[in-house]
Amino acid sequence: MGLHFSKEEFLQRKSAVIQSMKDQNIDALLMFRQESMYWLTGYDTFGYVFFQTLVLDQKGNIILLTRAPDLRQAQNTSNIEDIRIWIDKDGSNPTDDLKIILNELDLKGKKIGIEYEAYGLTGRNALKLNKSIENFCSYEDKSELITKLRAVKSVEEINYVRKAAQLADRALDEIWKYAKAGVSESKILAEMNRVIFEGGGDYPANEFIIGSGKNALLCRYQSEKQILKDKDQLTIEWAGTFKHYHSAMFRTIPIGKAETKHIKMHEACVEALINCESKLKPGNKVGEVFNVHAKTLDDLGFNKSRMNACGYSLGATFSPNWMDWPMLYTGNPYIIQPGNVFFMHMILMDSDNELAMNLGETYLVTENGNERLGKQKLDLIIL
Question: With a threshold of 0.70, does the pTM exceed it?
Fold first, then answer.
């Protein structure tokens, strides 16, 4: 069994979820987020693209309902003992199988929490689920019940995040080696991924972002791969990933020569990041961190170029993205706690001048402040 955490760790997590369920008067929880299943049981799969749910009741019973290809996946990667299979056939409705499980657990007439905000629960299946249980029990959205518990990392989790940060640093070393005129973006990506996998890392929950020229202004991956020119700009966002735990970084690198505005944009990003660091402390709200980011960049004249969020939590996440809850945007009331891990990114995209500048680092919140997990310098490097 390939469990990545101690038995005691899993027991503590289960107890915390059950206590939260009791506090919120929930008799059972239907998990559809793969992150929740992995965190609670170790279950590691991408089978959540089909209907799949993990049921936990207040008595501690755990039952997984999934498809046949994931039977051995669950047996080999998790501590789940009761695994049920719904059958693929024309017109099959796995919510009927789920209702049988709920009835076995004496949940008729009880209150059930459901993780509706889950990539594994499509709108169509959610409608089927609601119809199946509407006269069986009461139910409500509890998408954040486990997510809030996951936001504070344990010592065991922090060890994995630190390993991910080491892998992210190694990937940046490869960028310094290969990001030069005449080199393809594909080569850079290949070398970055090579050192991550050779270091024991995993696939990240989403693609690395890479783009040069005008594509350096894009905040998402796209499939065009270019050859770096003598005078160019290269934007890369990536993450080291270990046991699905992420530590992300973000850079824009001038190739050949930096424009004067490039230098000013980088100086602004550094100033904004340092100011955000000073606010990323226990007791402050994450919305206050964003406000510092916005004020710094606005005061420096970059209001039109900045984004409306400056980061998000990181942890063990699955495709399609590594962004976790909570996000750093204005008004977010989440209180920062020791054990939180945040990726803070300063993004400037100047469409008028077709210039980009990005700087991002991952931080662990400590008892008195924070620790930047990446060990690379924040200097503007021109290659």
Answer: yes
Range from 205-209, 255-259, 276-280 carrying the lowest mean pLDDT:
255-259
By DSSP bridging, strand 138-141 and strand 62-66 are unpaired
What CATH number is attached to the domain comprising 321?
3.90.230.10
Confidence of residue 358 (pLDDT cuts 50, 70, 90): very high
**Residue 106 and residue 224 share a domain:** no
Same domain membership, residue 216 and residue 181: yes
Q: Which of 369, 96, 363 is CA-nearest to residue 249?
A: 363
Which residue, 13, 6, 8, is CA-closest to 56? Answer: 13
Residue 129 Cα distances to 122, 266, 373, angstroms: 10, 50, 42
User: Using CA atoms, how far apart are residues 7 and 64, in angstroms rounded to an integer?
Assistant: 19
CA 171 vs CA 15, 116, 329, 336: distances in Å: 38, 35, 28, 29
Share above pLDDT 90 across residues of the chain, in percent, rounded to a whole number: 97
How far apart, in whole angstroms, are the C-alpha atoms of residue 31 and residue 35?
Answer: 9
Neighbours of 62 (CB within 10 A): 19
Q: Where in 121-206 does DSSP place strands (E)?
A: 138-141
